[in-house]
Amino acid sequence: MKVQVNNKEVEIIPDSTLTQLTAQLELPVQGIAIAVNNKMIPRTEWEGFILHENDNLVIIKAACGG
């Protein structure tokens, strides 16, 4: 199954959750936010949030500095 992550096509296992996707992409546990189809998904919902074919995800990583 394919989804778009920050405008890049990514192949994932069907019925993957956001938590599984973060592990597959080796993302940090803290300091990221994820929007699916232009809707921010709270971290508390990642474990149960099932991704679907052609979902469009934006992953934002926190950065230090100013």
From TrEMBL:
CDD domains xref list: Ubl_ThiS
TM annotation in the entry: none
Pfam families: ThiS
Top-level taxonomic group: Bacteria
Name of this chain's protein: Sulfur carrier protein ThiS
Organism, scientific name: Bacteroides vicugnae
Source taxonomy: Bacteria, Pseudomonadati, Bacteroidota, Bacteroidia, Bacteroidales
